[in-house]
């Protein structure tokens, strides 16, 4: 009837999913994709009415608990958080992590959920967390289509699972196509199980168990999943179940038809081997149920489905009727008290005749009506304006809430505690501050663990974890392979299950390998589940300045545009970094902390309350007071700007230097504009490309904070070159802002304002 915008379905996979559901137990986790509707029905975590509610985009989480209408149909999730945003007892429920559309994007998170079981089983200090795990006996179930196994994330996650030996039960629904593209374009040897045969374990080598089964053979499917479950749950060995000869009778989605690309022979084979037809034959032949009885069951099933669809549609429609009717009533009231009554009557009549109206119809009509009476003033107009304000506020909650945590554990609610120092506080290398902090964090909470390349045995490349693997064991401080995407995935999955992972990307330049999963999965998790799930993962990396193209990057603009929904923190030194870690470990939100690469050997005083003090998010700090120009920066640029400010002071230019400290969020109290009100000039400096983070900061200060009102000079951005930084000291100097270029640009700004006082230098 055209009531839904889009549909994508799991027809042809029903029987395999029924078999898999038989071994899915309380405490288990699913990380699948958009064809798993039958599985979700079978485990009791999706009703028919909820299924249709998602199809219609019903925004009530009672009606559509997976996403509150924010995701198209086929995106499944269970609500793992209570009304206060705290984790429920995950061992008492069947759990589904929130789906995403990007193919194979579910794989990194799947690895992490399975990895959590390994930690819960092998770390005895975690056995008391009985609301999170029963000694690691939980399986992480993954599903994927055969074509999506071509994605790098699939191979990376499968390899990592084999290395880690985690209880990951991976099912591939193989229908021989990827939309219109046949198998020979996707997979070596035309079979993912043949491609991955090298992962098969044997008597001498650990690896995967690989099981092949036909998608229409129900008894064999049940046997296959019983075997797979036993291996996974008892032995903690990953299992690949390759479900072959699956059909997809609906085609990819409602936007296409498989008759366009499948041969007549293939279509005939699919009709013959449809799993529901085959299961009906098996029931008649082996279970001895008469065809007439099955016919009656099918008739009843269609009736139940139709009733659920109609009930869901009525509920969706009724959820908007009160606002719709009120808008009509107020429009008619306004029409009777205005000179524009003819035009208003036409608008009202058109709205009244709208078939299946949705929220935007009322909003659009009301705004057109208010434009017509913009020069009038009466009670009816005021009532309509009040209606508009109310529904827009309600729609903000419906469609834009939970970008960040709204619980009492939100990072912005963590109380600030200043660092304190003893009189004889030693000055140490910055790396020693980090090492001492991580020691405290690991000691106080057994749920905290750290993973990453070189993090374990050598304590990371800059020694932040030096000696801590030896002290806390390999389960707490762990080396990984070179696989940035699934390092993040390990953290996401473990954080979903209540752990507090710190996952390291060795250098900021290599964040690109993990950016997609950070953006599509981690950053939007609370948003796309409307507060139903959370993953408070801390991503640790280092960047800004070191040596050359791939160790000196500062792609902050890329992150700011991609990672809304998580915090981006840029401490200028290790003391600030430790304070951010303390804040985040008290919160329930994900974040990335970018430590300064050139700061590990710089001297800092060791705080006496290293494990307690917190640095608030979104609160800039004035590093140097001044009266002529406000300079806002962050990270390693703080030292560059302070050096330049010292030189500018010698020629009579007084600079107020502000460290933004965090970029997401940015200056939540709008303190920077107060500095601009004093100096009347604004410079925004960083090491990103022109138009990157400096332009973001300018929009925040000039537009959002209204600093344009107080400017006597054009606002200025100072950024790096558009190319990557060249190698060596000269390369760094000529690629990135340096004290001399900062001096020159700010001097030129002042020269334009007072040319006699500041004559040309060059």
UniProtKB/TrEMBL annotation:
Domain of life: Bacteria
Gene Ontology molecular function: any one: oxidoreductase activity, acting on the aldehyde or oxo group of donors, disulfide as acceptor
Alphabetized SMART domains for the sequence: Transket_pyr
Pfam hit, one: E1_dh
Domain annotation Transketolase-like pyrimidine-binding: ranges: 428-602
InterPro entries documented for this protein: DH_E1 (IPR001017), THDP-binding (IPR029061), Transketo_C/PFOR_II (IPR009014), Transketolase-like_Pyr-bd (IPR005475), Transketolase_C (IPR033248)
Cofactor requirements of the protein: thiamine diphosphate
Keyword terms of this UniProt record: Oxidoreductase, Thiamine pyrophosphate
Function of the protein: E1 component of the 2-oxoglutarate dehydrogenase (OGDH) complex which catalyzes the decarboxylation of 2-oxoglutarate, the first step in the conversion of 2-oxoglutarate to succinyl-CoA and CO(2).
Name recorded for this polypeptide: Transketolase
Species: Chryseotalea sanaruensis
Lineage: Bacteria, Pseudomonadati, Bacteroidota, Cytophagia, Cytophagales
């Amino acid at each position: 009837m055209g009531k839904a915008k889009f549909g994508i379905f799991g027809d042809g996979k029903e029987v395999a999913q029924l078999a898999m559901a038989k071994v899915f137990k309380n405490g288990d986790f699913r990380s699948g994709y958009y064809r798993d509707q039958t599985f979700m029905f079978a485990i009791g975590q999706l009703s028919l009415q909820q299924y249709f509610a998602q199809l219609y985009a019903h925004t009530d989480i009672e009606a559509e608990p997976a996403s509150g209408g924010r995701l198209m149909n086929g995106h499944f999730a269970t609500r793992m958080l209570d009304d206060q945003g705290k984790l429920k007892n995950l061992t008492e429920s069947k759990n589904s992590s929130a789906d995403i559309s990007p193919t194979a994007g579910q794989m990194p998170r799947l690895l992490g959920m399975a990895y959590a079981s390994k930690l819960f089983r092998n770390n005895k200090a975690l056995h008391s967390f009985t609301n999170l795990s029963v000694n690691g006996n939980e399986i992480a179930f993954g599903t994927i289509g055969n074509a999506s196994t071509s994605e790098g994330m699939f191979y990376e996650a499968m390899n990592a699972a084999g290395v880690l030996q985690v209880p990951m039960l991976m099912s591939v629904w193989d229908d021989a196509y990827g939309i219109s593209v046949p198998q020979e374009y996707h997979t070596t040897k035309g079979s993912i199980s043949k491609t991955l045969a090298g992962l098969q374990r044997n008597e001498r080598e650990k690896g995967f168990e690989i099981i092949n089964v036909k998608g229409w053979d129900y008894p064999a499917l049940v046997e296959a999943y019983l075997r797979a479950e036993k291996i996974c749950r008892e032995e903690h060995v990953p299992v690949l179940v390759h479900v072959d000869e699956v059909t997809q009778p609906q085609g990819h989605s409602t936007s296409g038809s498989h008759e366009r690309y499948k041969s007549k022979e293939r279509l005939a084979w699919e009709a013959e081997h449809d799993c529901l037809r085959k299961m009906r034959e098996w029931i008649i032949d082996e279970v001895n149920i008469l065809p007439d009885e099955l016919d009656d069951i099918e008739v009843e099933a269609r009736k139940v489905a139709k009733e659920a669809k109609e009930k869901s549609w009525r509920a969706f429609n009724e959820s908007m009727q009160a606002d719709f009717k009120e808008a009509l009533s107020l429009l008619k009231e306004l029409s009777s008290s205005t000179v524009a009554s003819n035009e208003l009557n036409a608008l009202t009549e058109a709205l009244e005749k709208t078939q299946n109206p949705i929220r935007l119809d009322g909003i659009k009509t009301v705004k057109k009506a208010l434009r017509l009476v913009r020069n009038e003033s009466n009670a009816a107009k005021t009532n309509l304006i009040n209606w508009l304000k109310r529904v827009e506020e309600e729609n903000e909650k419906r469609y834009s809430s939970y970008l960040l945590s709204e619980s009492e554990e939100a990072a912005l609610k963590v109380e600030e505690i200043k660092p304190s120092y003893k009189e004889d506080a030693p000055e140490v290398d910055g790396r020693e501050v980090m090492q001492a902090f991580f020691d405290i964090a690991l000691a106080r909470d057994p749920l905290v663990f750290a993973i990453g390349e070189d993090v374990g045995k050598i304590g990371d490349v800059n020694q932040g974890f030096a000696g801590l693997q030896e002290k806390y064991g390999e389960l707490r401080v762990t080396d990984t392979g070179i696989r940035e995407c699934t390092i993040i995935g390990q953290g996401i999955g473990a954080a979903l299950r209540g752990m507090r992972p710190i996952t390291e990307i060795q250098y900021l330049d290599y964040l690109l390998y993990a950016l997609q999963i950070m953006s599509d999965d981690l950053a939007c998790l609370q948003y796309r589940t409307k507060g139903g799930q959370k993953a408070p993962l801390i991503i640790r990396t280092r960047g800004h300045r070191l040596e050359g193209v791939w160790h000196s990057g500062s792609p902050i603009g890329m992150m700011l545009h991609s990672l809304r929904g998580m915090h981006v923190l840029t401490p200028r030194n290790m003391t600030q970094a430790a304070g951010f870690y303390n804040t985040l470990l008290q919160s329930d939100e994900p974040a990335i902390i970018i430590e300064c690469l050139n700061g590990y050997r710089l001297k800092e005083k060791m705080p006496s309350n290293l494990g307690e003090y917190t640095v608030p998010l979104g609160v800039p700090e004035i590093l140097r007071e001044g009266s002529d120009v406000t300079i806002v920066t962050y990270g390693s640029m703080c030292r560059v700007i302070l050096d330049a400010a010292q030189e500018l002071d010698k020629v009579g230019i007084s600079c107020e230097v502000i460290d933004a400290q965090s970029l997401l969020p940015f200056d939540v109290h709008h303190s920077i504009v107060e500095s601009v009100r004093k100096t009347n000039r604004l410079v925004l400096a960083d090491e990103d490309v022109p138009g990157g983070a400096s332009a973001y900061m300018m929009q925040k200060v000039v537009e959002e904070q209204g600093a344009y009102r107080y400017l006597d000079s054009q606002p200025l951005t100072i950024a790096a070159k558009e190319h990557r930084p060249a190698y060596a000291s000269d390369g760094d100097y000529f690629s990135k802002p340096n004290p001399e270029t900062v001096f020159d640009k700010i001097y030129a700004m002042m020269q334009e304002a007072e040319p006699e006082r500041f004559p040309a230098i060059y």
